[in-house]
Amino acid sequence: MNEVTKALAANLKRLRGRQGLTQAALSVRSGTRLPGISAIEHGKGNPTLSTLAALAEALNVSVSDLLREPKARV
Question: Which of 1, 28, 55, 72 has the maximum number of C-beta atoms within 10 A of its C-beta?
């Protein structure tokens, strides 16, 4: 799994959890199929830009927030 895929998986799971959403709830909110969300969070998905945009909009974040590598903890 490359670094962008790892970042996307971690960020999507973190941002979804921060809002108290299940994968199913995010699926409904974003119009993205549940298996697709699960695959992305497990680092196995290859989402389109449209999917990333829908997920970002549903989470009220930018696409870059989904793709940004987490800051290293000190």
Answer: 55
Nearest to 64, CA basis, from 74, 42, 49: 49
pLDDT tens, 14-70?
Answer: 999 999 999 999 999 999 999 999 999 999 989 999 999 999 999 999 999 999 987
Q: What does the alpha-carbon distance between residue 48 and residue 70 come to, in Å, rounded to a whole number?
A: 21
The model carries a pTM of: 0.90
Distances (CA, A) of 39 to 1, 12, 47, 49, 73: 12, 11, 9, 15, 26
Residue 72 is assigned to a structural domain of this protein? no
